[in-house]
Amino acid sequence: MSGHSKWSTIKHKKGAADAKRGKLWTKLLKEISVAARLGGSDIEANPRLRLAVDQAKAANMPKDNYERAIKKGAGELDGISYEEIVYEAYGPGGVAFLIEGLTDNKNRTTPEVRSYFAKFGNELGAQGSVAYLFSKQGQIVIEGHIPEEKVMEIALEAGADDVILEDEVWIIATAPDSYIAVKEAVDKAKMPLIESKIIMAPSTETQVPEDKLKSFLKLVEMLEDNDDIQNVWHNGQYAEPAD
Predict the structure, then answer these.
(1) Do both 222 and 186 map to the same domain?
(2) Cα-Cα-Cα-Cα dihedral of 182, 187, 190, 196, to 10°?
(3) Per-residue pLDDT, 13
(4) Mapping DSSP to helix (H, G, I), strand (E, B) and coil, where does residue 134 land?
(5) pLDDT over 70 percentage in the chain
(6) What is the value of pTM for the model shown?
(7) How many domains does the structure of the chain reveal?
(8) Contact between residue 241 and residue 213 where contact means Cβ atoms under 8 Å apart
(9) Are residues 111 and 222 in the same domain?
(10) Edge-to-edge strand list for the sheet holding 96-103
(11) Are 209 and 190 within one domain?
(12) For residue 240, what is the DSSP state?
């Protein structure tokens, strides 16, 4: 599918990042709070909040934690107000980066992100400089041992755009407005879910030169480790370095 975002790219160092449960929960709680503030505290009527809560449950977050974040976002409890931020840039090897964050202090976060790119001789770009290379897409990842016929039947009948077997997992791609229906169908069929989320899928891919790979991977790691950064999207393609 044109614009499909490679699982190998999206999952970069995911295991290592998700192992830091406290950091992951912090980012999810921010998203839950903002989603409740912008769209209300009714999970069923607020798709963004529903997605965030689903991810919190998948991360084994206690119910009390995310319910408290919902109440803070809805103004029922005192809490910090977060601002949505988006950064665009080209990084090592000419790779396009689209970075989404939530911060309570933009004057802290922006210089931090700028310094990460400066470390590798790059700088933040103007609004719109790379955003046109990405489009919003639902992505549901299923364990690859499920028969193709079953995955295709469940996903496509529910409204999915495409189903691809990649790196021994099934990747179901959906339009944003079809994501919830497809996710519900996958859940109802009790298919073994690995991950589901709304992603920003790149329309083009940039091969990272071997001499830039170390810098590229370090930049991604620095961005992902920042508590104010929620998502790091890029169009870089590369061979995983040997351990």
Answers:
(1) no
(2) 80
(3) 47
(4) strand
(5) 91
(6) 0.85
(7) 3
(8) yes
(9) yes
(10) 83-90, 96-103, 229-234
(11) no
(12) P
188 and 90 together in one domain: no
H-run or E-run covering 189: none
Query: Is the pLDDT reported for residue 6 higher than 80?
Result: no
Nearest CA-CA partner of 216 in 242, 243, 237: 237
In angstroms, rounded to a whole number, what is the distance separating the alpha carbons of residues 137 and 181? Answer: 14
Residue 180 sits in a domain of what CATH number? 3.30.70.980
Q: Residue 200: is its pLDDT beyond 90?
A: yes
Residue 70's φ and ψ, nearest 5 degrees, are -60, -45
| Domain boundaries, position 191 | 134-202
Residue 111 lies inside a defined structural domain of this protein: yes
Is 242 a member of any domain? Answer: no
Query: Is position 32 within any domain?
Result: yes
Please compute the mean of the pLDDT values over residues 60-64 and round it to a whole number: 93
93 domain-assigned: yes
Q: Which alpha helices (DSSP H) does the chain contain, by range?
A: 7-10, 14-19, 21-39, 47-58, 63-73, 106-118, 148-157, 179-188, 213-225
* Domain end position, chosen among 46, 73, 100: 73
For position 49, which CATH number holds? 1.10.10.200
pLDDT at residue 20, as a whole number? 67
- Residue 68 sits in the same domain as residue 100: no
Long-range contacts of 184-187 (CB under 8 A, 24+ apart): 184/158, 185/154, 185/155, 185/157, 185/158, 186/140, 186/142, 186/154, 186/155, 186/158
Task: List the structure tokens of 223.
Answer: 């961005």
Please give the single-letter amino acid code of residue 98.
Answer: L
DSSP 54-114: HHHHHTT--HHHHHHHHHHHTTSS-----EEEEEEEE-GGG-EEEEEEEES-HHHHHHHHH
Question: What is the C-alpha to C-alpha distance for residues 178 and 159, in angstroms, rounded to an integer?
Answer: 6
Contact 97/90 with Cβ under 8 angstroms?
A: yes
